Amino acid sequence: MNPEKIAEHKFVPLLHRTLSQRKYRPQKDALKNKSGKRQRTVGSKKERHIYFPSHLDSIIYSYYNHLLTIAYEKYLEEKPYGSVAVAYRKIPIGDGESGNKCNIEFAFEAFEFIERNKDRKLSVIVADVTSFFDNLNHRLLHRQWKRILNRENLPDDHYTIYKSLVDSKYVNENELFKRFQHKLIIERFKPNDISQKELKRKRVGKIYNMRQENVVAFCEKDEFFEEATDLIRVDKPYKSSIRKSQDKEEKKGIPQGTPISATLANIYMLDFDERVHAEIISSKRKAYYQRYSDDLIIVCDRTDEDYFYRLIQQEIEVKASLEIQSEKTKIYRYELNHDSEFKGGIVENGSVNTNKQLEYLGFQYDGSKVRVKTAGFSKFYRTMKRSFRRGAHFAKAAHIPSDSLFETRLYKRFTHIGAKRRLKWLPDTNAPSGYSRSTQVDWGNFISYLNKANHIMKEINKDEAIANQAKKIWNHFHKIKESTYKEIPKKR
Fold this sequence. Notes:
single chain; alpha+beta; 3-stranded mixed beta sheet; 16 helices
């Protein structure tokens, strides 16, 4: 909290991790099975590069994120476009309800606008920015940072934070693990005293065992600079003039994963939000605009479809120095048919394909009902199968006497049994019951999310459409459980 100290602070290189997610989608020309669904193929993996700060640096970023959030919200207080950016903000639910809005409420607001305007021929434009965090223009970010602070120059402490992000250094997680795996820092209870913990050193054989071993750090800061500076990676030179003379592209982007990155993304898009919102509320065009980080949605009249499509592409390129790929921009059209049914779908090659409906923030809307995307269920079932396989792995292990799958944990994570939010009770030898009430909370699971979505979207659906999607989970869970137990040999 001391600006002078932050201005002189030397940030430790970030920790780089690559997250990959496989795509399992049907091709357009894929053959259909007996049920009429197209056969799916495994596509190329989608990779996301995440960067984690050290413990101390993370606290610094968090504090300055707090300061910037206050400044950002204050700046937007009297701005007409203050409500269009919804991600990474605490926006109260209101209407007598406590808590803040999440993606469910934001998706509901977009679908609700469509519901209220079913008498119009509507076009819905959904787009996302290409590699958003990786392509932020540094000069524009610097200008917007000063703008919300209402300063002609960034204060020294803020400038130090800015430079640590735009000129960031990093270390690959796997390389750091190999360098220090023989003496990782772990946390353990003190002998004969579970009320206190201490730090110890231990060798860990595999990187995926770090959580199980309760590893809290790879090394101390001084150790890193004594033994691992050769692992630091950095894109030099920093100056644009020198890079130009070396035929290198101008540096751009900030690391995704730091506590301050999300707020900076909202600050960066101020000009874009202002321009698009100004066109949305114009007297000629009664439309709707919302931006959730790098995902944006515009609902407008069919006659304004081309105008808004060109607008967002131009504004992204001119105002934000970013890019929206045409293949990632989807247009949907909906209107009342001869039977007074509100129908439509995605626009492909100039015509409407009713087999593909509007998708936004994890939901699908077909003109009458809102449902959770099937991709969300697919991910949930994949996680469920992976957890059962993990349980089977330990049940088969020779050094573990039980052949159980630790069912309590699985039921709690993947069924309605663990869907309620509740306070945790932790072991306590001094309590008469052996347990004492804690301040920790079980936050529920995917079914909790489905229940909340069903409750909110019920105003549109008029029925239990989302709850009905969850009916198969219980049977699916027990089928996987039954097949998994068949793979585990009985132990005597």
